[in-house]
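Troubleshooting entry. Yesterday's outputs looked truncated, so today I'm pasting the complete records for two proteins to confirm everything comes through intact. If either block looks cut off, that's the bug. Protein one:
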Amino acid sequence: MAWVYLGAAAIFEVIFALSMKYAEGFTRLGPTFVTVVAVVGGVGFLTLALKSLPVSIAYPVWTAIGTLGTVAFGWLMLGEALTAVKLVSAVAIVAGVAGLKLSAA
């Protein structure tokens, strides 16, 4: 169940990052509300996941999924550039998280 909580936390993390962009410095009420709910959801589910997962695994996985999701949706939804450097960096993030997970086995 901890991995399900971590997955939910990561989804909220992506929503949080994207909604901050739409909140325009907290000047737009709807996106600001979504941002606050996403922060609470992300940290809340992460906390539940940490009840049984080591922090040295759960936190990097959470931030990595949040980072990768934000890069992907920034490209898809916001028209941000998806450069070779961004793609190589994303692969490096995945490799780093995979390394952490393997080291815990």
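Protein two, checking that the full record survives here as well:
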Amino acid sequence: MFYVYILVCSDKTLYTGYTNNLESRIKKHNEGKASKYTRARLPVKLGYYEEYNSKSDAMKRESLIKKMNRNEKIELCNSYKS
């Protein structure tokens, strides 16, 4: 299984990525070992995620989400919390 996710950083910015192990990836982000962007904005928390059967599909969706504006990403996060 592959996951596309949005993290909410401590400064309220958003980070989008993909992984094949969501729990481990979030842990690595919070340890400062996953990305330069989130390393300076700890702690992060999961705002949204989607599951995919293929890496290709996950990467395509990640690209689409990254092209969304902030309000559209926040809407995704809000739908996840509902």
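Both blocks look complete. Sanity check on protein two: The mean pLDDT is 96.
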